[in-house]
Task: structure prediction
Amino acid sequence: MKKLFACVLAAGVLSGGALLPVGAVFAQEVQPIDRIAAVVDEDVVLKTELDRAVTNILAQYAGREGQLPPRDVLERQVLERLILLKIQVAYAQNSGVRVTDQEIDQAIAGIAQQNRISLEQLRQQLARDGGTYSEFRTSIRDELLTQRLRQRFAQTRVSVSDAEIDAALAAQANSGTQYHLAHILVGLPEGATAEQIATAQKKIEGVKALIDKGEMDFAAAAVRYSDSPNALEGGDLGWRSTDEIPNAFAELMRGMSAGQVTAPIRGPSGFQLLKLVETRDASQSAPSMVTQYKARHILVRTSDTVTDAQAKAKADTLRARLAGGADFAEVVKDSEDLNSRGKGGDLGWFSQDEFGPEFGTAVAALQDNQISQPVRTPAGWHIIERTGSRQTDVGDRNRRAQVQETIGRRKLEDEWNRFLRERRGEAFVDIRVGKGAAADAPAAPASGG
Result:
């Protein structure tokens, strides 16, 4: 199940860079004697949910247990993720965000496909690990809801101007360096008091002292002390270009060497330590000429009630109708892709991997006006007709789009984390297990020791 859990985190269900809570994927079946770990407004986090989530984290760190904090601190961090998940799901539902059963079925089919197992095998695997299929569906629904909430948030709260894109492109022309960063955040609430600021500063200085003395490496310190949502990932921020880093931080990075850690920095979210993991030269632009394809398709999905074999049989029947002379525009009425069905199955112009590697490979292998045999992808079984191909210069357009995306992602990260802190501060949360029942945060090292 460890492999299946990893796929839940990495599949298209969770794509888009969202820092989603990891704990609710395999909550055990509720028993009458189940304890409540935390009350979150009108909902609860059960002790079995918390235990399952902690077990998942321990499995991910197998062989690297020394990087994890003590069990009680780890439980507190994981519980906080579960609390944030409950808050996000409730907010999404109250805001009118909805996920259909068909979308959940599609997501689960994709997870099964990536694990190379059938839906029935997935059910059996869940049962062996003490979970239930209905709870698994609920967890996938919650993840989809939070992802959709984040997308809606981005559309309404984040904008990138042409002037910002132009400035970033100019900066890239002068420096193609990208930075692999990690951070540790000691958060501060909105309107923090002088005492709260002093306490946070003392904590971050203490963490920096531990790192400087070699008593704890940066990733382990992030797992143990950081308030950032990516704490359990060692504070890793991935690769960032200069337009994805605030100007003040970018100036610091230019003067640092790989492995160095900044002094504590005060930012809008609190105090941070930044580590420059490594750098790379990304100044070489990708070739601007690319092949694009135009195609239309018919999709037959698998689901809880439609097995892969049944979906394949239906796709074979539809393909046979086309081979027998039926008009594509007529057969496409049976397609289960609601977005393209109303357009006769037309997908417009796209690059080869835009709809995934399986779909792209099949399209590239066709000739113009040729119809494929049924093609399996995580979405289901496709019948594809390639209607055109062309060589297109998309260099400048792609560069602008990429810069717009990276600037938007940076802004979204800042705004989204602020939004979550606000929702967390407004929510009624009653923690009933561990030290969190009496204290809000793990003990911090004293400054200088």
